[in-house]
Write the structure tokens for this entry.
Amino acid sequence: MRLQIRHFLAAAVLLGSLAPTASATEVLVVDGDRLVPTEEPYSLPPSPPPPPPSAVLPERAAPVATASSRAAVGQALRKARAKGLISARQDGTYRLIYRRALSTRSRLRGARRRELSSVIATVNSIARRGRLSSSRMRPVFIQLKRNAEFWRSKPFPRATAKVRFRGTELLYEYYPGRGLRIQPLQNFFLASSRAAECDIPGLPCPRERLRRQLDTLIGLSVRRGGFRAWEYYFDFGGGRAPWISGMAQATGIQSLAFALKLGFLRDRHRTYSRFAYRSLGAYRRHAPIGVRTRGYRGGVHYLQYSFAPRLYIINAFLQTLVGLYDFGKIGRSETATRRFRQADPEARRELPDYDTGSWTRYSRGGGESKFVYHVFTTKFALRLCRRTKARAYCKYGRRFAEYLERRGGPRLSRAPAR
């Protein structure tokens, strides 16, 4: 009972609305040749569906993993080493990871070979297009290393399973046919949940796990178009790796903001604040480098997918604004507040368009949201209501909550801001 109350309160802090006890998420921990199911006591969001073909840029054929594309990997490493952007030790480590992955693939057959081949092809494709920069090498080769280890002998997980390796805090998600992929949104949502719980006086707090997790995620950020970003390293819905998500980026900024409130992380506050600030450039640069685009109501809109400038997803837009608002307030960042204010009017004008009269739409002009995305849209609108007291957020947040109750969903608090 004590544990239930603990996570109920943490969910209330994070989501900005009181809801039933946060449900746990199963995470498969790689321990030797076993996958050990463990429960992470926080509810993590499901992976969003891929964009429809009409909403994305024209699909291009993926480059074949030929000898020339493999040579591009070596060339990228040589250039980075010659310019002093990576050390001799890093160069040797990345080359070893790549050679071992190729060697492992040569010994695999069937589905295991296809899974690892997909990850190797991603590395080759990024290098062949001249996008394997020195800052990108660390996350790209970590992802490759873990897949080479996994597909030798580990049991196949179910689709979209969350996986981490013992002794680490980085979450991967399994996409059938594409292997294990680093999932920034899942990782930052978990970090935000942990930080929210640590902010509740008198409750147990996973201090060291949170510290390791945030340090790991900062170490995986890359330089992209003049700002820091957390990228996705797999092709998805017509988008070519590497791409970014406005929602994931904002949730990362938000988790770093929450960490600034925690005294036991005081020695990290300067680092967290600096990285969060440097990440705000994603909302200044237009897609496909950043996530800024012109909204269909004429204002500024922040995208879920940097490669889909015509796809407007309301729950992602609202959570992006919440993350910017929180860092603006907690981190005292005028830049974050300015980015919030630039897009806030557009979100208020767009929100009524997602009301079907009995439920919400997932994206502009699309069908009804799945249950979980309706819950997200409702909670995020209520969070903005509490933060801004804006009429549109309060009106539609409460209306969407009523729809949820009619369909037997949880009752969400619609109380005014304290």
